[in-house]
TrEMBL record:
Protein name from the UniProt record: Elongator complex protein 5
InterPro entries per record: Elp5 (IPR019519)
MF GO annotations: tRNA binding
UniProt cross-references to Pfam families, sorted A to Z: Elong_Iki1 (PF10483)
Gene Ontology biological process terms in this record: tRNA wobble uridine modification
Annotated metabolic or biological route of this protein: tRNA modification; 5-methoxycarbonylmethyl-2-thiouridine-tRNA biosynthesis
UniProt lineage: Eukaryota, Metazoa, Ecdysozoa, Arthropoda, Crustacea
Source organism, top-level taxon: Eukaryota
Keywords of the record: Cytoplasm, Nucleus, tRNA processing
Length: 221
């Protein structure tokens, strides 16, 4: 029969790379090293199920960089990722959203709820909220647009914070109490305020030399 273009990589049986079997994915390796597209003359679509399994075997920063590099490959047209938001950190999910062109959130309700966020190349965001039903053969039916928002600019500040948070183990954010204490702190240069201009306040030290004689009086100039 006709040769299938579908290639399945198994990342469950040997995630640490102890065995050497064909099409076996080792989850501790960078993603862009797992796929060989050199002999391919067509664009490929990569579907990754359970990205959280990779997080258990490599750092979040390495994984985000690998996904970004993989999406920029000339032989890759799309990278589709399935992940569970319950087991992944907020910083990783925010960084993943930042490098993604679209995000689809599904809720197992009746009818099913689907929220879509699509980011254009210009940075504008298009959000849609839809409901639908699945038939016995898993065919999508009765799609109803619940809400659709106009394109808005993306909040770059929160995205940058998310990327920085994903790249370090330090806490770069402040709690409300820490922000209040920071704003309440009075710095030394703020303690003396004069409406008549600036002044220099100097307190003499014990080792200061207050010799008022001319130090150059012995020079023949």
């Amino acid at each position: 029969g006709e040769k299938s273009n579908l290639v399945v990589y198994n990342g469950f049986s040997d995630p640490c790379g102890w065995d050497k079997e064909e099409n076996m994915v080792h989850l501790n390796r960078p993603l862009y090293e797992l796929f060989d597209f050199k002999s391919s003359n067509q664009e490929n679509v990569i579907i990754i199920d359970r990205i959280e399994d990779f997080v258990n075997h490599q750092s979040e920063l390495q994984l985000i960089n690998s996904l970004h590099k993989l999406s920029k490959d000339s032989n890759v047209s799309q990278v589709i990722i399935h992940c569970s938001t319950d087991v992944l950190s907020e910083s990783f999910l925010s960084a993943l959203s930042y490098i993604s062109a679209a995000k689809i959130m599904l809720k197992p309700t009746v009818p099913c709820i689907c929220k879509v966020v699509f980011r254009k190349k210009s940075g504008k965001l298009i959000k849609a909220h839809e409901s639908f039903k699945l038939s016995d053969k898993f065919v999508i039916q009765n799609v109803i647009v619940v809400e659709k928002t106009v394109p808005t600019s993306q909040d770059e500040t929160s995205d940058v914070d998310a990327i920085l948070a994903a790249q370090t183990t330090f806490n770069l954010t402040l709690t409300e109490e820490q922000k209040f204490a920071k704003n309440k702190l009075l710095l030394p240069h703020q303690r003396i305020v004069s409406v008549h201009g600036g002044h220099i306040h100097y307190t003499p030290d014990d080792v200061d030399d207050w010799d008022e004689d001319d130090p150059d009086e012995d020079l023949d100039i």
